[in-house]
Amino acid sequence: VINADKSEFNEDQAACCQISIRKREPGLEEDEEWLILCSTQFLTGYYWALFDGHGGPEAAIIASNYLHYCIKQKLEEVVGGITEARPPMHLSGRCVCDSDPQFVEEKHIYAEDLVVGALENAFQECDEVIGQEMEATNQTGGCTALAALYFRGKLYVANAGDSRAILVLKDNVVPMSCEFTPQTERQRIQHLAFLFPKLLDGEFTRFEFPRRLKGDDVGQKVLYRDYFMEGWGYKTVEKADLKYPLVHGHGKQARLLGTLAVSRGLGDHQLKVIDTNIEVKPFLSCIPKVNVFDFALHDIKEDDVLIMATDGLWDVLCDKEVAQTVRSFLAENQTDPHRFSELAKCLVCRARGQKRGHQWMLDDSHEASYDDISVFVIPLHNRDED
Amino acid sequence: VINADKSEFNEDQAACCQISIRKREPGLEEDEEWLILCSTQFLTGYYWALFDGHGGPEAAIIASNYLHYCIKQKLEEVVGGITEARPPMHLSGRCVCDSDPQFVEEKHIYAEDLVVGALENAFQECDEVIGQEMEATNQTGGCTALAALYFRGKLYVANAGDSRAILVLKDNVVPMSCEFTPQTERQRIQHLAFLFPKLLDGEFTRFEFPRRLKGDDVGQKVLYRDYFMEGWGYKTVEKADLKYPLVHGHGKQARLLGTLAVSRGLGDHQLKVIDTNIEVKPFLSCIPKVNVFDFALHDIKEDDVLIMATDGLWDVLCDKEVAQTVRSFLAENQTDPHRFSELAKCLVCRARGQKRGHQWMLDDSHEASYDDISVFVIPLHNRDED
């Protein structure tokens, strides 16, 4: 469900599909391809993803058309290992060294780790493709990416950006992602500027201060943080500290190089800081953090759901408020066959608020979300297993 | 308490002392130093630290003599901000901009953050001093550092290395540190090698494999991880992959560049990989992770203690076993005035085990610790407040 009633262009994109992963017979050589085709079997995965574009919707559109294909491809590359409880040291299944299984066991490598690795590699691959595609068509922009994959009894949620996924279960709420913003990744970003000062081209300071410094501050000791600090210290202000900070602003206003509100995502290969030659991409990461939820370890109830949404929802509603809405809506609408999609609409409408005069307001008279809002509600009960 | 019965040289060092932090009157200029001296007041901190040396005890000795001085110095530099609930934007207390307090509030900066920042800076300062001292005296080696500071109602535990601190409270155990080893910091270390391949001088591969690869593996697809992966994938083995891995081995055997078992600590400025020109120091970090425990938020009972110990203890006893020993020992020895130091001895002896033939064994007939073992037991009840 997407709502872009208030902004000129909708930059959110959504995708969902079934992913069929071709299973190769173990022990077959590449040149026995015809045998593989004869004995093909498929593993099935279920995929949902949200992409929040910036600088135009193009990157989000390519990602929504392409990321599932990258995931399929990366899973097929390792499928021989996924079907074993312990992936073999060699994908071919051959044992070069008698103690191979022991090494895999010692390192605690499970089939699940191959799926996580495939998702990490798929995001990187998709980012490269977007870069090529955007360059070829002379387009710009980027997007965040939040992807959920249900595969062989486990839910994998891969996130790069500031969208969020939570499981709303009967008795508790399980966060399935964390946000990557210039604020949450300040130390990583400052460290890179420390290692490669040229990336700032003399235009930015890597230090963080509580506010932008002014001429009057020079010579005084003011609060600051460097890349290695979680705490704060005081430093004597020099002229160079008056430059614009690499990470600046607070909360939703925090910006990387004064330009971007997220620190991970896909695209943005051509993005430069306005009126400069400074590239933003070196500070961005396309690598997701993957969280795994194993259904075998939980007793899933009928109204348990996965909620995925872009920041348009989470800017105005916290996890707890969303969970309350989910539980009360599903309790009140037990028989409606479309209750899960109705719930998604309900969540979008709550975050969009009501128009009062020129302003959109929430029920509690706080300001409503001005951003695009996209929500998936995915029921977890009665999963088809293959 | 230190036990080095089984090793030729004891490389553990311990330190504890009171730290007096000179408090300056706010608003005084540096040239009014005589006024400051007249009106001097002191804040008191209590300090305990353990240092586990490697490549000789020298770095650990310097650190045990010097780290508390660095901490005192760094705290005095920011003491004007520490005595306020909200540190002022300017250490002088002057308000250059009316909204300064608001910016400090928005960034959630508290006095506690200045103590954390002072500890982070103190470790870095101490590392530099050790580097200069060791170079001047032509000595080598390094050490881990675990430091606890009780200051103004809060306990700060700063850790760089594989020592550990836990709070054993009546009803639960609170971890106050986490370990930094080549395994826990694999991604940081691999990422640095990705950014600066020259650091490996063509002698190491940055990829992780379940075991060291052999000629027979070339051309095959084997399990691997790169810097951006928490999961695993398969890669086709090339000749370059046969090189020794940057991070290799599992558990206590894991080594950085085949050389070091820890990835954070002080010293090691001159350390090179044997028979090469490859420096280890760029991969090491001297920055501690600081954990804070606020006594105002907890009801501390009479037998609640902080346990600090080097890896010699934790290699053979887990948190739970240590907590059990702590609780039963203190319950059985309620009147002994030296019961806390007796408990420390008891923990050391448990980890050292009993000599049976040529082997030292634990009670449960597992192998005992062969490393140096140092333990602090610090009672938390009846703290003097200043």
From TrEMBL, chains A, B:
Signal peptide range in chain numbering: none
Record-linked InterPro entries: PP2C (IPR015655), PPM-type-like_dom_sf (IPR036457), PPM-type_phosphatase-like_dom (IPR001932)
PPM-type phosphatase domain mapped to chain residues: 25-380
CC annotations in GO: mitochondrion
One MF annotation (Gene Ontology) recorded for this entry: [pyruvate dehydrogenase (acetyl-transferring)]-phosphatase activity
CDD domains to which the protein is assigned, alphabetical: PP2Cc
PROSITE patterns tied to this protein: PPM_2 (PS51746)
Protein name: PPM1M phosphatase
Species of origin: Psophia crepitans (common trumpeter)
Lineage: Eukaryota, Metazoa, Chordata, Craniata, Vertebrata
